Amino acid sequence: MPLGHELGSIQDDPARHRRRTLGMAWSTRQLADLAGTTIKTVRHYHRMGLLELPDRAPNGYKQYQTTHFVRLLQIKRLTELGLSLAQIRAMGSADEEPEEAIRVLDAELAGTIERLQRIRAELAVILKHRAPLDTPVPFGPVAEGLSERDRALLTVFSGVLKDDALDDLRQLMAEDTEGDDEFYYLPEDADDATIGAIARQLAESIRRSQARFPWMADPGSAATHGPGLAEAAIGSAFAELFNAAQLKALARAQALIEETEPSGRREP
Predict the structure, then answer these.
(1) The pTM of the whole model exceeds 0.70
(2) How far apart are CA 254 and CA 199, in angstroms?
(3) Which of 25, 116, 140, 264 could hold 125 in an S-S bridge, CB 3.0 to 4.6 Å?
(4) Is the CB of residue 150 less than 8 Å from the CB of residue 157?
């Protein structure tokens, strides 16, 4: 084997072997090929200060030695373990206080594994219920068949309401609520009588929902970023996603609820 031949030459005449190999050097391409990487990568490591620049021959070509080859392989190994180039530069050579870097890496990997497991669980829900990929996590089980408008509204809810409130909304969406279809398909040019009839249905439905989930009477109380921001975001979403007749029906429904609400519960 060539390795055996080389070892034999070292044993036969170590001084001669040293004199011969001291004159050997690798070009950038040769070094990259040896390490299984690219010239671009080697140059990038130079710019980052990870790999020292070698001496140059009289003709200007770089002359890489074994120390460069070893360092390049060390960098490759550390990146395979998951360390970033910035971390490798901060820790110096691989044998300088590696324990802290390993602990940091282990913690980062644990966080990454947890995040990936959560993503897999979310994808499983999406696949099971054939939900669009951008469906907010709490609404995956009820997302099949939702319109683009519904998904947009749920996305707004998921951005401003607490998890418990989102769970309550999911429960409501999983149930058949009287008047929902009439409201969602109400045309913009609906007459006043039709709007009034739908408003009365909505008022009854909203009263029942608020009785089950009191926060729905005051959505700001379930906000994640403050009541003002949540109410503004939800109000803006309704204004943009529903037509004038639907908004009129919602306003009338709210007025009906306030008319029948005990005076002690009304806001001043």
Answers:
(1) no
(2) 8
(3) 140
(4) no
Q: Exposure pattern of 44-82 as b/e (b: 16+ CB <10 Å)? A: ebeeeebbeebeeeeeeebbbbeebeebbebbeebeeee
Residue with tokens 């070892």: 7
Report the alpha-carbon distance of residue 120 to residue 160 in Å, rounded: 24
Whose CA is closest to 180, among 218, 150, 138?
150
Backbone angles phi, psi at 49, to 5 degrees: 80, 15
Burial 2-17, CB ≥16 within 10 A → b, else e:
eeeeeeeeeeeeeeee
Q: To 10 degrees, what angle do helices 28-35 and 39-48 make?
A: 100
Reference 68, options 37, 17, 31, 43; nearest CA is 31
Q: Which of 130, 45, 128 is nearest to 89 (CA)?
A: 45
Q: Please enumerate in sequence order all residues whose Cβ is within 8 A of that of 21, keeping only pairs 6 or more positions apart, or say none.
A: none
Using DSSP, state whether 117 is helix, strand or coil.
helix
> Average pLDDT by consecutive 10-residue portion of the chain (268 residues)?
51 50 77 94 95 91 93 91 84 63 82 90 81 81 83 91 93 77 91 95 92 92 90 93 95 91 50
Q: Whole-angstrom Cα distance, residue 33 to residue 167?
A: 56
Residue 223, beta-bridge partner list: 161
CA dist., res. 213 & res. 190, Å (int): 31
Residue 55 β-bridge partners: 63
Compute the distance between CA of residue 87 and CA of residue 84 in angstroms, rounded to an integer. Answer: 5
Tokens of 181: 């279809």
CB 39 within 8 A of CB 74: no
Rounded to whole angstroms, the Cα distance separating 87 from 97 reads 12
**Residue whose C-alpha is closest to residue 159's, from 237, 241, 239, 246:** 237
